[in-house]
Every structure is written in structure tokens, then in C-alpha cells.
Design a protein that fits this description.
Length: 52
């Protein structure tokens, strides 16, 4: 989204990008801080120099 639009500073809601806007509390839908989903998000943020 930022590519070609340097003046945009998107706001990311990690819980929406990982499992959608589900309000379910099913443990299978939950992401652990040290889990692979958060790791992918963390690495992408580091690579692009942004916070999520």
C-alpha cells in the first residue's frame, strides 16, 4: 500500500490481518506472541521500517 504513495501511513490492526475480524475466543484462532503468524508480521514490519 505504501509503495508509490510515500505520504500514506497506514494503521494496521494485527488481529484483523491474522485471523479476520472474528470475535470468537476459540483457542485455535488465537495467535501466540512467539508464534509463526506474529513472527511473519514482525519480520515484515522490520523489513519495511514500520510499526504494527
Amino acid at each position: 500500500m505504501k509503495r508509490g504513495r510515500l505520504n500514506i501511513e497506514p494503521v494496521v490492526f494485527p488481529e484483523y490481518s491474522l485471523n479476520g475480524a472474528s470475535k470468537a475466543i476459540d483457542p485455535e484462532l488465537q495467535c501466540a506472541i512467539g508464534g509463526p503468524q506474529i513472527g511473519l508480521l514482525r519480520d515484515a514490519c522490520r523489513r519495511d521500517g514500520v510499526w504494527a
